[in-house]
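Sanity check. The docking grid for S-adenosylmethionine depends on where the pocket ends up, so I'm generating a full predicted complex first rather than guessing from homology. Inputs follow.
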Amino acid sequence: MRLPAVAGGELCIGPHSRRETGKARADLSHQDTSRIFALAAPQPNGHGIGSQVGDRLSQKDPDAPPEPLEWGYSLANVREILLGCLDAVGARSVLEIGAFRGELTVALLDWASTTGATITALDPVPPGDLLALAKARPELELIEETSHDVLARLDSLPQAIVIDGDHNYYTLSEELRLVAERVSGNEWPLLIFHDVCWPHARRDTYYAPERVPEEHRQPLAHNVGLAPGEPGVAPLGLPFIWAAAREGGPENGTLTAIEDFMRSRAGLRLAVVPAFFGLGLIWHPEAPGGEAVGEAIAPFDQNAVLARLEAHRVAHLVAGQARTRELEALKIRSARQEAALRKLPDSRAFALAERLSALRRGGEPYFTRAEIREALE
Ligand SMILES: C[S@@+](CC[C@H](N)C(=O)[O-])C[C@H]1O[C@@H](n2cnc3c(N)ncnc32)[C@H](O)[C@@H]1O
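Predicted complex below; grid placement will be based on this.
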């Protein structure tokens, strides 16, 4: 497929019932930059992301596990499963919606270099690393637009579509509607989703809330933390710039959008791999390669061990985030205290007070400049 180029937790633990909002949940992703960078490496917030990606793409061992405190936001973390499914359907054309820094895109390009498939990536706000990747790998078609704009003008569909853009009910439902309108018969493309587990499964998040009509937006929370098992917001949770103020309920979250979509379309299959915030797949068993995809994904679909691992991973991520924030607050407090204390040893008034205290206490002052200097060392 060549697209017209344009310038520039339900932690997947247990069944995906949206009524189970009180349960521990996991799977996540992105936003706020400053606070996230404080925690670790880059996250896909889409807002002023720095440029460590070039490093990551050029220097990092592609097979290395994610850094312990990174969020593990990229689908590249599940690439063996994802590429296995592309192989199963023999995909000759792949569209990645929401490419961010191109970490999955690189994996797709490398895979395509052995299969001859075409890779198109789209992102309305491509970070520098993605632009650099498009320059370095001319076989990549990069489109700087939103998914809705691009899907709406497609005459035909690619054989596989990775949907990893703005994780909210409206955006995803529209993406699915636009795809469905272009499907003929059972010739469904393989649909691959990211972030179908906690925190996005049952809670909208927004890169650009203004792109979602107000009547389709959840009540918004701005610059908030999210934590598994907390349906509201959690001050020390994973930071998000824009998120639904509450988890759960109708028309809220990625998995909710997928399930609602599936309800109106007979014959489609859904798999959810509860790892790295959740990999989702929709396919039609009678589409080319449909049976093979079903077989390839079966061992991972709702895999209980993966779900447990993901629950642990997310719990540690959230705990790490909380510790980082607490540490930051302590550092600020400590810096203030130090600044105040530093004035004392040089203060004549304080020296006088020390002498007075010594006089009143038989030569043993209650405080000394020496002990303050020592405390400041
Ligand atoms: C989670 S990141 C993608 C990560 C990438 N697919 C990977 O696996 O490494 C989401 C990206 O979607 C982009 N995005 C946000 N809204 C979008 C939209 N309406 N259409 C397409 N992409 C969008 C953001 O700019 C961001 O770069």
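Relevant for the grid: The chain has a mean pLDDT of 86.
Also worth noting: The two ends are 65 Å apart (CA to CA).
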